[in-house]
Request: fold
Amino acid sequence: MKVLVTGANRGLGLALVRSGLKKGNIIFAAVRSVADKHIKELQSLKESYEGQLRIIHMDVTNEKSVKQAAEAVKLTDQYLDVIINNAAILNERDKKIEELDMNAVLQAFDVNTLGPMRVVKHFLPVLRIGLKEQVAEKQAVINISSEAGSLTNAYSGDYPYGMTKTALNMLTEKLRVYLKDEPVDVLSIHPGWMKTDMGGNQAPKEPNETADNIYRLIENGWNSSQFAFVDDNGNHMNI
Ligand SMILES: NC(=O)c1ccc[n+]([C@@H]2O[C@H](COP(=O)([O-])OP(=O)(O)OC[C@H]3O[C@@H](n4cnc5c(N)ncnc54)[C@H](OP(=O)(O)O)[C@@H]3O)[C@@H](O)[C@H]2O)c1
Reply:
């Protein structure tokens, strides 16, 4: 499969790159900064998995950079099978609504919700090339969501993060309906509480385990006729 991973330089994104390469996939690792210090691990993976890894620049808040990344993928590899919208930020943690910096709230929506929208806007045509030419393997759009986006389990705090993930889930559902007659699975996945910069050291889960599970979900196919907001083992989450 040819897989795009956003936010690929650390955390779950990097684990998705590693796991995808091990499985023999071609991976487009999209990173906000291509400066050496940010992509050291990716560069060494590129050497270990010769010919399988492309490192591409993409800031998901910048539509021009998303468009250019899509054009670059088309040029070098013709089409894509899977989009994994992983990049996100968690800001304004534990603040009361009276304390929120609204610019930070806007920034969270820009990265976590509008970012995946921009990516799908420019990369869906690249997925469709594979469909049209009947060369595509599994096709999927995976939005990495969070239990923080659950309406039924809403908690006070993490206002921007929770709201951006609820809105991301709506993007998932709108895309699923839009693509219902095409063989493209569309899922929102809660990856679990993981040991990453975002999740912190106390988290019980390793991102590598989550990444392997996510590939298993993609490979098995979903074929859901309903909204799919699931954990990385495929269990339904509370909407
Ligand atoms: N960790 C958890 O416990 C947990 C729980 C539930 C859901 N999640 C979700 O899982 C996903 C991965 O989280 P994580 O824990 O791996 O987070 P992380 O360690 O904080 O990494 C976030 C990634 O997003 C990238 N990013 C941020 N802003 C960007 C932008 N404007 N354009 C492109 N990339 C950008 C970062 O790049 P830079 O290095 O350039 O900043 C980094 O690669 C997220 O969607 C998150 O919401 C995580």
